[in-house]
Amino acid sequence: MPLVAGIDSSTQSCKVVIRDSVTGALVRQGRASHPEGTEIHPDHWWTALQEAIAAAGGLDDVDAVSVGGQQHGMVCLDESGNVVRPALLWNDTRSAQDAEELIRNAGQGDPAAGASYWAGSTGTVPVASLTATKLRWLARNEPENAQRTAAVCLPHDWLSWRLAGHGPGTGPASLELLRTDRSDASGTGYFSATTGEYLPDVLESTLGHLPVLPGVVGPLETAGKTPSGALIGPGAGDNAAAGLGVSAGVGDVVISIGTSGTVFAVSDTPSRDSSGLVAGFADATGHYLPLACTLNATRIFDATAALLDVSLNELGALALSAPEGAEGLTLVPYFEGERTPNLPEATGSLHGLTLSNYTPANLARAAIEGVVCSLADGLAALQAQGVDARRIILVGGGAQSEAVQHVAASAFGLPVFVPKPGEYVADGAARQAAGVLTGQLPGWPVEGLTVDHAEPQGVAPFLERYRHYAAKAAIG
What's the pLDDT tens digit per position in 340-350? Predict the structure, then answer.
């Protein structure tokens, strides 16, 4: 019974799962927390990984391991392999100005032309989360640290490198042994998902010189070995690893409902959205992973439940007691601005109020419909890029609500599959590790339920009404 380990090094914590490589059965697991913040020294990730591995009973009997990690984080190393400065994470926004300037510069002052250039060359229009914008911030604000930077990698690359026995003080030769995969590389802003190659001119324009970059290994190639001899898989960015964890294939759209919302698909073709709504990432299997984000998801449920003085379970029950469409009550949930569509200054709004429909049940229903409808807009953005959507895989904490599942089936007009709650990113990394052992990804079963949906008869009335009011919010 060969065992494999999957690691999820996320913003908040590190999770380790150890599974049977043939059946996928969970053998044991462990976790440890990361410090809070948007700027973290990578040593904290390594410490948490050691704690999580120990909690999972160690890796001595494991034949392969792979790491799924938070995307975009900027890890800078000097020529000896030492960390130059704390890593800037995806959620650090100090490089927003740099993103805007990269767009303008590429278009010679014309933002539209610049956005088109970036979408065509990297698949993604720069935003503050991307590594490239953080490197430009570093060069402008900490030129000495920028000059010391001999290699740049991402969180999962750095952890895989450390697992292979490299680290601080191991010297310039060890930097050449850094490895990554195309899914995580595609989130840097200096890699083309279409060609599978780095863009050195883009990178040099951000940092000021060309550092060592991790070699990009194929979906089932090894990135090295641990000192005990276990194979190290290529790893993946967290969304790509989650796609592996739920066995998403071409035609599947994964919609994650957590603090924020994420909509991504496995696609045969790359996306190049100059509007910036859809990021053109690669996946972990050789396909593509167009992705859209929304800012408002389960916190809208939390706020509405608090307003109505009910629990989240009671909120769902109230919503299910109301008719579809909440008798005309419509919530546009842009409480914290919005990313899809790109309305950072927008606020939420409640429409269609009457004396008869202004009830707790309808308000609960409107909150859930509003969040699901905003995710439907994310799906529409993917479909505008040519994504063939045949099935929705609904994940995240919000997906466990029966009311959310019911509304999603109506709004999307597609079969909705809800996997059992689990560590999808770590499970995906473990599945990749199993594939490295055998040469092909195993077909591990994914347990869950399929929510009945009506045959599509055009856009659901409540979604059509939502889009009418959301368009008004976009106008201001």
Answer: 888 888 899 99
